[in-house]
C-alpha cells in the first residue's frame, strides 16, 4: 500500500517508530535515572518525606533531565565533527532531544511555580515573602532561558530546516546555546551548596551541580569543534 506521498506505508511506519523512540526512549531512561537519584538523595538520605515525591522530588528530576537533553541536542553537532564515524548517524535525533528538553523545561516551570514558597525553598527567601538577590537572579535567568529556547524549538519543527538558509538556521542554534547558558546560570542558586560537600545528603552531589555540568560539557564541545562557515551541522 502506498501513501499520497508515494512512500510505502511500511517505510512511513518505520520512520515514525524511529522518531518516537528518539523522542521517548533516551529521555524516558534519563528521567527514570534522575528520578531515582533525586529520590535517593532527598528522601532516603535527605529530610524530605515520601509525600514530597510526586511534586518536589519529581520536579528536581525533570529540571535535571530537561537541561541535559537541551545540552545533548546542542552538543551532538560538535560530537559529530569530532567523531563522525560514531556520532554523525545520530544527528537526526537532536531535534527530538531538543523538543523533549523544552517540553520538560516547560513542565518544570509550572511545577516550580506551584510550590515556590518559603516552606519548600527557604534558601530563596530573605523572609517569608521577599526573594534574595541570588534567587531573583536565578529566576530571571530561568525565564530568559525558556524564552530563548523557543528559537531552536522553532527550527526543530517539521520542514523548518528545509525552508531556512544555513546562516539563519545556525543563528537559531546560537540563540539556543545562549538559552542553555542562561539555564546553567538559573541553577546558580545552588552554588553555596556545591562548596560544602560535607553537607551533601548521603554524600551525593546536588542536582544543580549535575545540571550545570551539562552546560559546561556542551559549551566545551562546541569550543573544541567549532562549525566552519556555511556548515549545516
Describe the protein's architecture and organization.
With 233 residues, the protein is mainly alpha-helical. It has a single domain (9-224), classed as Four Helix Bundle (Hemerythrin (Met), subunit A), CATH 1.20.120. It is built from nine helices and two strands. A hairpin with a 2-residue loop joins strand 1 (125-127) and strand 2. Helix 1 packs parallel to helix 4 (94-114), helix 2 packs antiparallel against helix 4 and helix 7 packs antiparallel against helix 9. It is globular, with a radius of gyration of 19 Å. The two termini are 35 Å apart.
- The rounded distance between the terminal residues' Cα atoms is 35 Å
Provide the CATH architecture: Up-down Bundle
Q: Which of globular, elongated, flat, extended, rod-shaped describes the shape?
A: globular
The CATH class label is Mainly Alpha
Q: Secondary-structure element sequence? A: HHHHEEHHHHH
Membrane topology: Multi-pass membrane protein
Protein name: Ferric oxidoreductase domain-containing protein
Subcellular location: Membrane
Pfam families: Ferric_reduct (PF01794)
Amino acid at each position: 500500500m502506498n501513501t499520497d506521498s508515494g512512500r510505502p506505508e511500511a517505510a512511513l511506519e518505520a520512520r515514525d517508530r524511529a522518531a518516537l523512540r528518539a523522542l521517548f526512549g533516551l529521555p524516558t531512561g534519563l528521567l527514570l535515572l534522575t528520578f531515582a537519584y533525586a529520590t535517593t538523595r532527598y528522601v532516603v538520605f535527605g529530610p524530605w518525606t515520601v509525600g514530597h515525591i510526586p511534586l518536589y522530588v519529581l520536579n528536581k528530576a525533570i529540571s535535571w533531565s530537561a537541561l541535559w537533553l537541551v545540552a545533548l541536542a546542542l552538543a551532538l553537532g560538535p560530537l559529530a565533527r569530532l567523531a563522525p564515524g560514531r556520532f554523525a548517524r545520530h544527528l537526526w535525533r537532536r531535534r527530538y532531544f531538543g523538543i523533549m528538553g523544552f517540553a520538560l523545561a516547560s513542565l518544570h516551570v509550572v511545577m516550580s511555580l506551584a510550590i515556590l514558597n518559603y516552606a519548600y525553598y527557604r534558601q530563596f527567601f530573605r523572609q517569608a515573602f521577599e526573594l534574595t538577590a541570588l534567587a531573583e537572579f536565578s529566576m530571571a535567568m530561568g525565564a530568559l532561558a525558556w524564552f530563548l529556547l523557543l528559537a531552536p524549538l522553532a527550527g526543530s519543527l517539521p520542514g523548518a530546516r528545509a525552508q531556512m538558509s544555513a546562516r539563519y538556521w545556525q543563528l537559531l542554534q546560537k540563540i539556543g546555546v545562549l538559552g542553555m547558558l542562561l539555564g546553567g546560570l538559573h541553577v546558580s542558586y545552588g552554588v553555596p551548596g556545591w562548596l560544602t560537600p560535607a553537607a551533601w545528603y548521603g554524600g551525593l552531589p546536588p542536582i544543580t551541580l549535575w545540571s550545570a555540568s551539562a552546560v559546561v560539557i556542551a559549551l566545551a564541545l562546541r569550543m573544541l569543534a567549532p562549525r566552519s562557515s556555511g556548515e549545516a551541522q
